[in-house]
Design a protein that fits this description.
globular; 23% strand; 6-stranded antiparallel beta sheet; Arc Repressor Mutant, subunit A; Leucine Aminopeptidase, subunit E, domain 1
Amino acid sequence: MASVNWSHPSVKALLQESGVQDPYAAMEDRARGLTLSALEKGWKGPPYDPFFLADALEIETVARQDLEDARLVPIEGDKPRIEFNPNRRPARIRFSVAHELGHFLLSDFAEQVRYRDRSHGDTGGADDWQLESVCNVAAAELLMPAGAFPLADTADLSLPHLLDFRKPFGVSTEALLRRVVRLTDQPACLFAAARLPEGDGFRIDYAVGSRSWTARPQVGDRLPAESILSHCTAVGFSDARVERWGDHELDVQAVGIPPYPGDRFPRVVGLLRPATEDATPTVALRYVRGDATHPRGDGTRIIAHVVNDQAQRWGGRGFAVALMEHYPEAKDDYAQRPPDQRRLGSVHLVEAEPGIWIASLVAQKGYGASGHPRLRLSALSPTLRALASAAIELDATVHMPPIGTGQGGTPWPPIRDLVLQEVVDRGVSVTVYVLEGEAMPEDAEVRAQLMLA
């Protein structure tokens, strides 16, 4: 991501604070932390309500019919206020509020009023697009959190098929396509672009590739004015054709979406696919019938399971009982660890026998009956990241039951999305074992919610 000079002060501060070179990844990480906390508190969708998030952050939301869109208003000595136009379409209102929450996630949010309308676009600078695009990424993550989309519906990546999901989810095209690309095993890439002044073509603002995509365009890349993107002259206008982007022949699907504040022409988002049929999808998360205590395959294997933060030893109920019976030394090793290594977010890794390791992910708060799920997604995410690092170091594959769905009490889809993002996307193969007679832990709940939406 070297072709853009990140010059906007808010974006520069974000990069400095996060210690990474990609502002979109830094913002996505902050937004994800907010959504995981909300999901733990019972936040449900679709559609996913950003007003719930504002309430959780104690940010007042005020309807203002005199506004064109929305704005974040700093209040001295207090949390900011989000003002929005209530006469917009519901999906647009949700996006605008989520976008302003993105501004709030930046450390300098209180320095000035942040607007989302054309009337204030001419007061900004040439690099304001950097800030707006970063906050658009935040909005996409907030409106389509982990577990939001059914995995089976990523099989058809044609734009007309996918755009039909905008209504039941109540989201923007951009938010929907970002989640789809994160899920699919097929080679595909989401791009977002803006028209340059004076008819000089288009600038790639960002691109997100699926785990099997290798030809991702870079931020700041330029496309000629003759590109198919030039046909997307209004919001909702779309087109598709095969084009050469750099060294690659690509199947380009593009659609116009609302512009940046002050811009005349719409932005363009879309999907890139290989133009030839010889690209094979990479499948690194698979489901099998069987027992995860007997991981299949050759080479080094890690069996991962979730444990709670209060029990001194694991093995009381569920999968841990079977694990304890097969690998009692691993259970004893965990019990000997000091209490500070059994805190939420910790990982305990031990070699149970040659080539078989046990990873205990401390991501469950307490145990026993509870009115709320005990799994903490915000703790599961870093434990999965550590699991991936261990697997890479050991050159190992990962094997697990549908973690967190038993005693943790959490539906599988959000857990699945974290496994994909934190483990599979880092190049580690994961096998999920489902016992004979048990339902496959996929999208039943998501589909049921869609039918009610």
